[in-house]
Design brief:
Its EC number is 5.1.3.2. One of its GO terms (biological process) is galactose metabolic process. It catalyses: UDP-alpha-D-glucose = UDP-alpha-D-galactose. Homodimer. The protein is of the alpha/beta class and 342 residues long. It has a domain at 2-188 and 239-268: NAD(P)-binding Rossmann-like Domain (Rossmann fold, 3-Layer(aba) Sandwich). Helix content is 40%, strand content 17%. The protein is built from eleven helices and 14 strands. Strands 3-2-1-4-5-6-11 form a seven-stranded parallel sheet, sandwiched between helices. Strands 12-9-14 form a three-stranded mixed sheet. The chain is globular, with a radius of gyration of 19 Å. Bound molecules: nicotinamide-adenine-dinucleotide (NAD) and UDP-4-deoxy-4-formamido-beta-L-arabinopyranose (WQD). UDP-4-deoxy-4-formamido-beta-L-arabinopyranose (WQD) binds at residues 91, 93, 131, 133, 185, 204-206, 209, 222-224, 235, 237, 275, 298, 301.
Length: 342
């Protein structure tokens, strides 16, 4: 089945394209390269050529914006798209606070345009990239899918609003088959060392920052607070290996068998890991202690956030199998092979 992957040149999209091809799907990618580059697609093709020789084909790629209706129509006319995975969008919490309109315009307009053209071409299967951010500040842990959707920042609100749009569409327009995957903290890289997380500028997220300290681009890890009510006082999160996350999309596609019923699943490990534990694990991967400094808390951070991953296991037959140690090992292989990104 041909699967349209929006944002498929990005961090999660590129890893998912590989797992889709390995699972026998035919990915078709649209990406405007606003946060990625052609290098990503070259590396994906190289990985497929060596690790998935049965795939054999190329990855049809369309450079453009998901808000371009004519381009979407061209893709649906040129390929027998059976379902869509929608990664394309802006994803920085901090940036969304300083540029809210850009986030609402990009994330929501692109989704509305995509849904409109999907319906016009009667392509009604969709897997949407949602986020644990839709839970807002956790009041109870682990987080379960039945908890209310809300947010504390424009980025998170775009995910809450898009999930509401998808749920309303499912309940009002017959035939939609939609699953949202709520990712917790994606980390790591492909075990080939050829693709990984390649943030522009100073990384907002912990793993890429630690990785850049390890390769000497940054002098030390700034630990945002050690006075949280957690075992070692530092923030606790649910870090999911990017390959496990990519495989969750294959599982979701295979279970797109619930027309007229909207579904959402937590994609996490169900285990909370602290900042200091991450630094320790990455230090072990590198083979030396990485320098860090305890500094003030980052505004907006919560102490702990981790998933109940039971529903995805029960209904999608998916659960995480890789560890944070695997993620640190694979991140280090990627970073040390590509000290300046691609
Ligand atoms: P990313 O920025 O690496 O990938 C997004 C891709 O979409 C990029 O290649 C970018 O060029 C492309 N893109 C953006 N806007 C576009 C548009 N209008 N038209 C076409 N292409 C466009 O981000 P990612 O980490 O791979 O995240 C993918 C999705 O997963 C996003 O929707 C994000 O909100 C969501 N998500 C990410 C995380 C995370 O921590 N990385 C966590 C939860 C959810
Ligand atoms: C993890 C932990 C920090 C950097 C974010 C978004 C979320 C989702 C995933 C899109 C926290 C600490 C971090 C650093 C640190 N993205 N930290 N020093 O904030 O859990 O989630 O990315 O959907 O929406 O909010 O991830 O990696 O930024 O932080 O001490 O240099 O590491 O305080 O405890 P976060 P993160």
């Amino acid at each position: 089945m041909d699967v349209l992957v929006t944002g498929g040149a990005g961090y999660i999209g590129s890893h998912t394209v590989i797992e889709l091809a390995a699972a026998g799907f035919t990915p078709v990618v649209i990406d405007n390269y606003s946060n990625s580059s052609p290098h990503a697609m070259e590396r994906v093709r190289k990985i497929l050529g060596s690790s998935v020789p049965s795939y054999g084909g190329d990855i049809p790629f369309y450079e453009g914006d998901v808000r371009d209706s004519a381009l979407l129509d061209q893709i649906f006319e040129e390929h027998n798209i059976g379902a869509v995975i929608h990664f394309a969008g802006l994803k920085s919490v901090g940036e969304s606070v300083s540029q809210p309109l850009s986030y609402y315009r990009t994330n929501i307009d692109s989704t509305l345009t995509l849904l409109d053209r999907m319906y016009a071409h009667r392509v009604l299967g969709l897997v949407f990239s949602s986020s644990a951010t839709v839970y807002g500040v956790p009041e109870q842990l682990p987080l379960t899918e039945s908890m209310p959707r809300r947010s504390t920042n424009p980025y998170g609100w775009t995910k809450v609003m898009i999930e509401q749009i998808l749920e309303d569409l499912t309940n009002t327009q017959e035939g939609w088959n939609i699953t949202s995957l709520r990712y917790f903290n994606p980390v790591g890289a492909h075990d080939s060392g050829l693709i990984g997380e390649n943030p522009r500028g100073i990384p907002n997220n912990l793993l890429p920052y630690v990785s850049q300290v390890a390769v000497g681009k940054r002098d030390r890890v700034m630990v945002f607070g050690d006075d949280y009510p957690t075992a070692d006082g530092t923030g606790v999160r649910d870090y999911i290996h990017i390959t496990d996350l990519a495989r969750a999309h294959v599982a979701a596609l295979r279970h797109l068998d619930h027309p007229d019923v909207y579904k959402a699943y937590n994609i996490g490990t169900g285990r909370g890991v602290s900042v200091l534990e991450i630094i320790k694990a990455f230090s072990a991967a590198v083979g030396r202690d990485l320098p860090y400094e305890i500094v003030a808390r980052r505004p907006g951070d919560v102490a702990s956030c981790y998933a109940s991953a039971d529903l995805a296991r029960e209904e999608l037959g998916w659960s995480a199998s890789l560890t944070v140690e695997d993620a640190c090992r694979d991140s280090w292989a990627w970073q040390s092979n590509n000290p300046d990104g691609f």
